[in-house]
Fold:
Amino acid sequence: DGGITQSPKYLFRKEGQNVTLSCEQNLNHDAMYWYRQDPGQGLRLIYYSQIVNDFQKGDIAEGYSVSREKKESFPLTVTSAQKNPTAFYLCASSRGGSNNEQFFGPGTRLTVL
Amino acid sequence: AQKVTQAQTEISVVEKEDVTLDCVYETRDTTYYLFWYKQPPSGELVFLIRRNSFDEQNEISGRYSWNFQKSTSSFNFTITASQVVDSAVYFCALSEASNNDMRFGAGTRLTVKP
Structure:
């Protein structure tokens, strides 16, 4: 089954701790993306990567970090520097380019206590 | 930068009613792409349709239809004879050829009551 997996579905962390969200795809897509979704605000781009070992900041990259060591994987670390990390995080992938649709994972709901 | 506006925050209809979700966009590019996604309660966004800026032909897919009008910078989505399973948040998005940045609207929450 081709698709995007994100784990875990729900994640709880104490304030001040870093946490890494997993995103894996087996669609052989070149591009991968991380979005944050808050109620009533739609999706905001955190980071994206068009190829392995390369990534760019989106609109709200502060307090987050990513890596792209493998084509299939694009983990997101929410650092303690992120002031308001509680949110729903969505990972997506595409064939790349602005004309291709993105395919989304099921999301991870992060709650920082 | 491009911008997408979905002015309707929430819409509630009764089953079998028709409903139109509005999407207005802003861009300076002549080549761009418009998308609609559905987000059911499970949370995963599902791709519905893509339109490029040179193709203003309206599209129908079953109960779904899309009306793209460049003159008004709109890409509206109509569901005919709505069903309870259509209840979801619907997002309109815009991607410009000059960058790889897809911008999403704030979404419209559609509730279809039986």
Notes: Chain A touches chain B at residues 31, 33, 35, 40-45, 48, 50, 58, 88, 90, 92, 96-99, 101-107, 109 (CB under 8 Å).
